[in-house]
Amino acid sequence: MEKKNDNFQVLIITGLSGAGKTQVVNYLEDWGYFCVDNLPPTLLTKFTELSMQSEGKINKVALVMDVRGGEFFHDLFNALIELKQNNIKYEILFLEASNEVLIRRFKETRRRHPLAPEGRLLEAIQNERSMLEELRGKANVIIDTSNISPRDLKEKLLTLYSSDENSGGFSISLISFGYKAGIPLDTDLIMDVRFIPNPYYDPVMKNMTGQDTEVIDYVLESSITKSFIRRFLNLLKFLIPNYITEGKTNLSIAIGCTGGQHRSVAITDYIGKQLNRLGYNVTVKHRDVSKYTMED
């Protein structure tokens, strides 16, 4: 290639059949990506080179490549090596879901699994997991769609890929949660803050949340909280630059307490503000804050 476009973006979408790749492509098309579904891996380098020579008409491409490629799918790793040799940067988005959810989706839509033309759906899903295991390990972002709504999926993708500001740099996703409702599956780091003094046992704050001033002061003024936040922020200050150097484009951090109502909410908001002040692109979400009026 004679000329390179440093702003050119290549996003490879892969993962388990039924995990939501088609839905992701629909969103990306709305955000200006040139999308191709089921592109043979052998054409990856050539397609990318042609796109880069479009004189700016195509700056973002999203390519779905999965086991539907059959024998050609195994050529993907060689194609990725070619991209790297040609100094073409790319990211891999991997979508997955639990066996139970995938089986239900296939039965509801009456679709046929590409590895199960004659049935045996569970066996096909397990085989597909095995085939994709190495590729999953190379993914920049992994999203488990088992318990995520279309709206939440869109918001997550919006943070990662929609705007020029977000798609070109490193982003951090912070989420507070309650252990009672389960641990978020698609996170890189999980912090348990149930050791911090609990506002729930104060009758005045019992039905408040971590976004109320009284609760914020109670949680953040604790000497235990101050010590934890100081150490946790120092850890993040060490980790984040190294993640960026390694090529990671998004860091997902989950902070949990018992119910996701008080402690995790206050601490997540505070950590988000501190990371924002350090110049990082941060989004904050409170998964369970509206669910509980009980013990935090």
Short key terms for the protein model shown above:
296 residues; alpha/beta; Rossmann fold; 2 domains; 5-stranded parallel β-sheet; 4-stranded parallel β-sheet; 10 helices
Look at the structure and give the mean pLDDT: 87
Tally the helices: 10
The CATH architecture of the largest domain can be named as: 3-Layer(aba) Sandwich
Structural class: alpha/beta
CATH topology of the largest domain: Rossmann fold
Widest sheet, order of strands: 2-3-1-4-5
CATH-wise, what's the superfamily of the largest domain? P-loop containing nucleotide triphosphate hydrolases
Which CATH class of the largest domain?
Alpha Beta
- Determine the strand fraction and express it as a percent band: 15-25%
Q: In terms of per-residue confidence, which ranges show pLDDT below 50 for 5 or more consecutive residues? A: 164-168
Tell me the number of structural domains.
Answer: 2
* Total beta-strand segments: 9
> What's the helical proportion of residues?
40-55%
Give the C-alpha Rg. 21 Å
Report the end-to-end length measured between terminal Cα atoms. Answer: 57 Å
Q: Shape, please? A: globular
Q: Can you summarize the main beta sheet?
A: 5 strands, parallel
Q: Element order, helices and strands? A: EHEHEHEHHEHHEEHHEHE
Question: What would you say this structure looks like, in words?
Answer:
This protein is an alpha/beta fold and 296 residues long. It folds into two domains: 159 residues, 3-Layer(aba) Sandwich (Rossmann fold); 116 residues, no CATH class. It has ten helices and nine strands. The strands form two sheets. Strands 2-3-1-4-5 form a five-stranded parallel β-sheet, with helices on both faces. Strands 7-8-6-9 form a four-stranded parallel β-sheet, covered by helices on one side. The chain is globular and about 60 Å long. About 2% of the residues have low confidence.
